[in-house]
Amino acid sequence: GAGVSQSPRYKVAKRGQDVALRCDPISGHVSLFWYQQALGQGPEFLTYFQNEAQLDKSGLPSDRFFAERPEGSVSTLKIQRTQQEDSAVYLCASSSGYGAVTQYFGPGTRLLVL
Amino acid sequence: SQQGEEDPQALSIQEGENATMNCSYKTSINNLQWYRQNSGRGLVHLILIRSNEREKHSGRLRVTLDTSKKSSSLLITASRAADTASYFCATDEGGNNRLAFGKGNQVVVIP
């Protein structure tokens, strides 16, 4: 079947603008993860969903970041009042298991905040 | 926070040579995984090794794990130009619901 898809692939936002990033996981995958990857660095964990429940949001850098997965499938990561330091690639991953098992990543959304 | 730390950071080799990269971590783990990332793309899972395993093979990949030294190595044999990518190790930090990634190794295979 299809892999993890993310949209948009690229997003340019003006500082202070709100953005919403979408993730479509592999059908039937119960776990969904969001990561933030700065240039030249490894991905940093943001948040984890098991079905519709957000079990871990300890990686969200500030209260401007909000994620949801209301029906246990598609997830949206929202960033309010974007700042330049939010510029990064946002990766979504899903897995059929629970927790830190093999994860399948989407292509990412590259966010540039001017 | 970054758990794994790969060493070396950048590697340039000729096609056909072997490439070895290392990763160290700080906490106890249940498993350690290696991922590959091609330029501008998402990560692709390569191999997972559990904490009670010492070595694992998958095609041209060989992974070792030394839990006493908290380190792992990834060996790619008979490298190809298509192996050019960044390679990341990631651990579960002993059962967290997340992966902790290292900074990554950039590998360039020259045809």
Which characteristics define this entry?
heterodimer, A: 114 residues, mainly beta, 4-stranded antiparallel β-sheet, 11 strands, 0% helix, globular, B: 111 residues, 6-stranded mixed β-sheet, 5-stranded antiparallel β-sheet, 54% strand
Question: Quick recap of the structure?
Answer:
The complex is a heterodimer of chains A (114) and B (111). Chain A is mainly β.
Distance linking N and C termini of chain A: 37 Å
* Helix run count of chain B: 0
Q: Treating each run of at least 4 consecutive H or I residues as one helix, how many helices of chain A?
A: 0
**Distance between the terminal alpha carbons of chain B, to the nearest Å?**
36 Å
- Shape summary of chain B: globular
Q: What is the residue-mean pLDDT of chain B, rounded to a whole number?
A: 89
Please trace the helix and strand order of chain A, writing H or E for each element: EEEEEEEEEEE
**What fraction strand of chain B?**
over 45%
Give the chain pair forming the largest contact, with residue counts.
A-B, 28 and 27 residues
The percent of residues in helical segments of chain B reads under 10%
Provide the low-confidence segments of chain B as ranges: none
SSE-based structural type of chain A: mainly beta
**How many β-strand stretches of chain A?**
11
Q: Roughly what percent helix of chain A?
A: under 10%
Structural class of chain B: mainly beta
Beta-strand percentage range of chain A: over 45%
Uncertain regions of chain A: pLDDT < 50 for 5+ in a row? none
Q: How many strands, what sense, and barrel or not for the largest sheet of chain A?
A: 7 strands, mixed
**Assembly status:** heterodimer
Could you please describe the fold and organization of this structure?
The complex is a heterodimer of chains A (114) and B (111). Chain A is mostly beta strands. Chain A is built from no helices and eleven strands. In chain A, strands 2, 4, 5, 6, 9, 10 and 11 form a seven-stranded mixed β-sheet that branches. Chain A has a four-stranded antiparallel β-sheet with strand order 1-3-8-7, with no helix packed on it. In chain A, strand 4 (31-37) and strand 5 (44-50) form a beta hairpin. The radius of gyration of chain A is 13 Å and the shape is globular. The termini of chain A are far apart. With 111 residues, chain B is mainly beta. Chain B is 0% helix and 54% strand. In chain B, strands 2, 4, 5, 9, 10 and 11 form a six-stranded mixed β-sheet that branches. In chain B, strands 1-3-8-7-6 form a five-stranded antiparallel β-sheet, with no helix packed on it. The mean pLDDT of chain B is 89. The interface between A and B is medium-sized, with 28 and 27 residues.
